Amino acid sequence: MNDLLLEIEDLKTHFFLDDGVVKAVDGVSLQVRRGRTLAIVGESGCGKSIMARSILQIVTPPGKIVGGRICYHRAPGDVVNLLDYQRKSREMRAFRGREAAMIFQEPMAALSPVHTIGSQIVERLRLHSGASRREARALAVEMLHRVGIPHPAQRVDAYPHQLSGGMRQRAMIAMALICRPALLIADEPTTALDVTTQAQILELIRQLQAELGMTVVIITHDLGVVAEIADEVAVMYLGQIVEHGPVDAIFHHPQHPYTRGLLRSIPRIEDVTRARLDAIPGAVPHPYARPGGCPFHTRCRERIIHQLELCTHTAPPLTRVGPLQQARCWLHEPPGDGQRGAGHAAEPALAIIGGQ
Amino acid sequence: MSASHLGTLPKHIQDELAALEREEASERAVATASQWRLMWWRFRKHSLAMVSLGVLATLFLVAIFAEFVAPYNPMAVHATRTYAPPQVIYLIEHGRLTWPFTYGLKSTVEVETMRRVYTLDYSQRIELGLFVRGEPYRLLGVIPTDLRLFGTRDGTQLISVLGSDRLGRDLFSRMVHATRISLSIGLAAVALSLVLGVTLGGISGYFGGRVDMLIQRLIEFIDAIPSLPLWMGLSAAIPLTWPPLWVYFAITLVLSLLGWTGMARVVRGRFLALREEDFVMAARVSGSSERRIIFRHMLPSFVSHIIASLTLTIPGRILGETSLSFLGLGLKEPIISYGVLLQDAQNVRTVATAPWLITPALVVMLIVIAYNFLGDGLRDAADPYA
Amino acid sequence: MDRTAPRDAHAALLEVQDLKVYFPIRRGLLQRKVGEVKAVDGVSFRLWPGETLSLVGESGCGKTTTGRSIVRAYKTPPTAGRICFRGDDGQVVDLAQLGDAELKPYRRAMQMVFQDPFASLNPRMTVLDIIGEPLLVNGIASGKELEARVAELLRRVKLPPEYMRRYPHAFSGGQRQRIGIARALATGPRLVVADEAVSALDVSVQAQILNLMQDLQAELSLTYLFVAHNLSVVRYISDRVAVMYVGRVVELAETSKLFAQPRHPYTEALLANVPRPDPRLRGMRIVLQGEVPDPANPPSGCHFHPRCRYAQARCASEAPPLREIAPGQHVACHFAETLTLRGAAAPPAVA
Fold it and tell me: How far apart are CA C12 and CA B384, in angstroms?
């Protein structure tokens, strides 16, 4: 059965700046299955946000999508390449809003401060459907109720600044979901929120997804959020996907040194106090000073322990390392034989690094 | 982090691992570039602002060396050349490139209108030259010399590239001297506004509370006064008996009296924003005195904003002076400013017969536009960390 | 009013007593005071030499204001309360109402690391000027000696001393935070207030900075007051934890005790809501309803009662005091003894 919603192939989004070209997204291929939640995770500057914006073609100059395909499966057999549409075309505008919607870290970026939330939701709905003003308003109130805003019949006439941070986030979600999109892209939706509010919003997204059968692409740097909500995870580093797989495999059998490094470097609430943290050395390189070969080789301890020369000059391909799991690392593609199992070879060395 | 637990690995691998920990900072020239260098790099990208900078720099040079650039004394009256038209400079003679020359002017007085009518006198070929000898003067007010940028070779014949006014004075020479007055009055008026604006804006932003409230209301009141009528009223009050230099300073004062409010707002806004910055708090925790916090930590952060905002207010001052002088309420002869020059172009008849008298207006426009572009560029570059 | 472990109260490096910081709300043409935000409303705790105490809570709980008030980072002194600091000579001084001049000798002993590695370094000053500033204004060093000291400080935070002529924009977020730490260490402080010092950093860099802070604490016998919202980080770095809610401390205990067996319902909820980086632990959370109240207009009685699963009538009318229910364990809840709350201990293994 073909249950794909989105197929991204070799997507490239570059930024043409005075000082050079920044390859924010540099050949990303991904598949998103209908009704599932994909989390794109990575540190600042890895291109995860630009990659999500590229799907909706809301990358603004000097950023430009320079290559690839984004195939959207409206229904089985009904496939369109979104990159065939112009950025500002009618088709693309209809796609954004009606079939796909986006929520942001900062709700004020999506909500107009001079209109009531109700009027913004109504306008969005009427733009994409033939609903009358009266029907639209009733639907808006219903949606506000659904996203957990108390007294929706009164709050519908509130201005965004009259709401608290968590309520604004809910209002933005209501606006995004009013046209019942098949795809919701959530860009760091809980980063600015406190833990208790964050838990509420994640719960809300999960619940709405179940009710409306949406597909969710969530962009975050917080591995806790990923573990909480994702079905599948793509780990990005310097514009590329370095590992991709089901959430349990990523967290319990990570195969790329970067994923492993990330997971080891976070303090855990159940750990004993003051156990030394195993940090990834260095920092994400400056976009102008992108390392050659494998982009992660400048920070990779496993490369040194295994004395892999290849990494410094040749970029590894995305290799299959599990039933649904892929990793972009020479540890898994030893030159000569394509046998899987190299990942296990990495384990003893790992034990040396992490072991204390 | 330590690598002690990696003791089982060979030495060279341990060394490589230790090397990983050393994160390099950016090696590019940017690393050690001060804010002014960063601003210059950013400013350079603004091509219109760069051109404007060139235009203004040239005009300032002209203003400083006015006596040298102007071929004649701007006061010299030539009774035979009233309303003489601009003389064309020829570079080609008999199809060949030659040293620049012009033809002399022949004038006859029309009997009915009592006007002089000029025709070219082709028999009189006047050779032009660079660095010719002319009337003696003191360069920069000190060095006695008679060298002029350009003029006629023999020194007795006249060349007026932009024509002459009703007293036969050379318009080009007069404009060169007007540039000096108009540009300097713009700067002087803005300098005064700067002092007022920075002081009051600084007090307002730094102390806040009641003082801030009072100063803000004062600014709103001043901004509500229509400027031209007030300027007119004030300049009309300047006694006619005052010497030209006094009048010059009085007009400067009048112009700057209203102009400081924008500056005060900028300074106050920056103060309010910076007061909340972490690095200001860090300085306080370090034990820096409030004085040091203001002058060492806060002020350098907005000097560039002040310069940009100043640049944008200069054209307003220049236009103010020009308007006042044009209306006869500002500077007066013998001081020459663009406004004074434009007084000659006040009636349609003059403009119809001697259209070259409007050229000062074109230069004023050029100056205003150049300042605006320059200010735009500076404003964009003012915060290189944004 | 001993509220900490049965240690000798005279040994405390810092004792904060009933600290109150109110910010006036001014409105209208004449900027008349129409109310006040009780950002910090009666906070008391002791800090022992060499320990790390964390202040945790959600936005608006007053943890940052508490930290900043203690190092007197605000221009105005706190509204009320005492900040008793034991100086190098053993004399205890109340810093709360000291003027700038009297405060200056104590500034050397109390420093601060800021959250934002970008905003906390003046972009117009070189690293040498930034780290050298506290040395210069406190008359510790100048000229060549200043440079030598700055080089030494840079080495301490694991940055090459050659970088001292550079401007902050040449550095990554983690490196900038190291510069901020070097500045805080310049005067040889005994107390360092770290205000969300790692929350703006990427996870991989966050671990580096946490490790560095641990190393420095051991090397220089520093005492940390660590202000944070990330409970996993707090668990990692602190000896004791104070949980704050709307301007008040609701629970103060040793880290392991507080995490294993919280005694305040708010602590329980916070712990349950920490997103755990393990998909096998899903659905273990108690989603707390409602939102953090506005500190300008907090609920009556116990500020937490409208969101509390265990609230009873008494909670709405009577504010519970912070009391010691077991040695070193302080809770502000009427029912602390009777409630059995869930901690964040390692969950039962999932097959």
Answer: 46
Write out the residue range of the structural domain in which residue B162 sits: 78-167
Please state whether C196 falls in left (phi above 0), alpha (psi between -120 and 50) or beta. left
Please list the alpha-helical segments (H only) found in B225-277.
227-236, 244-275
Tally of domains in chain B: 2
**Is the CB of A267 inside 8 Å of chain B's CB atoms?**
no
Together in a domain, B284 and B351: yes
Residues B205 and B271 in one domain: yes
Tell me how many helices (H) and strands (E) chain C has: 10, 12
Are residues B313 and B362 both part of a single domain?
yes
Closest CA to C163 of C117, C203, C131, C197: C131
> Does residue A36 sit in helix, strand or coil?
coil
Give chain C positions within 8 Å (CB) of B277: 119
Q: Which chains touch C (3 or more CB pairs under 8 A)?
A: A, B
Residues 6 or more apart from A1 whose CB is under 8 A from it?
A: none
Q: In a mutagenesis test of the B interface, which of C70, C110, C122, C195 is the best target, namely the one with the most B β-carbons within 10 Å? A: C122
State CA A102 to chain mean position distance. Answer: 11
Q: Does A231 touch chain C (CB under 8 A)?
A: no
Query: Which residues in chain A are closer than 8 Å to B41, comparing Cβ atoms?
Result: none
**Number of CB pairs, chain B paired with chain C, less than 8 A apart:** 101
Nearest CA in chain A to B42: A18
Q: Which residue, B167, B190, B208, sits at the end of a domain?
A: B167
Angle CA A65–A71–A74, to nearest 5? 135
Measured CA to CA in angstroms, residue B362 lies from A201, B342, B356, C215 at distances of 63, 11, 10, 70
3-class SS at B246? Answer: helix
Domain ranges of chain C: 10-109+189-331
Q: Do A268 and C276 touch (CB under 8 A)?
A: yes
Q: Could you give the ipTM of this predicted complex?
A: 0.85
- One domain, residues B322 and B356: yes
Note whether B144 and B107 are same-domain residues. Answer: yes
Cis bond upstream, residue C189 (ω within 30): no
* CA count, 13 A, side-chain hemisphere, C55: 32
For C148, residues 6+ apart whose C-beta sits below 8 A from its C-beta are: C141
Residue B14 lies in a domain: no
Placement of tokens 């691998």 in the chain: B13
In a domain, B55, yes or no: no
- Cα Rg of chain A, angstroms: 22
Pairing of strands C52-56, C223-228: parallel
Element (H, E) at A92: helix A90-94
Which CATH number do you get for residue B182? 1.10.3720.10
My answer on whether B105 and B181 are in the same domain is: no
pTM reported for the whole predicted model: 0.83
B195 touches chain A (CB under 8 A): no
List chain A pLDDT tens, one digit each, 356 residues.
458 899 999 999 999 887 788 888 988 999 899 889 999 999 888 888 899 999 999 888 888 899 898 999 888 778 888 888 888 888 888 888 888 989 888 888 788 888 898 888 898 888 888 788 888 898 899 888 888 888 888 888 888 888 887 888 888 888 888 888 889 999 988 887 888 888 888 888 888 898 888 999 999 999 989 998 999 999 999 999 999 999 999 999 999 999 999 998 888 887 765 667 888 888 888 777 788 888 888 888 888 888 888 888 888 888 888 888 999 988 887 655 444 344 444 443 333 333 33
Other C-beta atoms lying within 10 Å of the C-beta of residue C271:
24
**Contact between B23 and A286 using a beta-carbon 8 Å cutoff:** no
Residues B227 and B337 in one domain: yes
Residue C287: how many CB atoms within 10 A of its CB? 13
B155 in any annotated domain: yes
> What CATH number labels C10-109+189-331?
3.40.50.300
> Tokens standing for A249?
């495999």
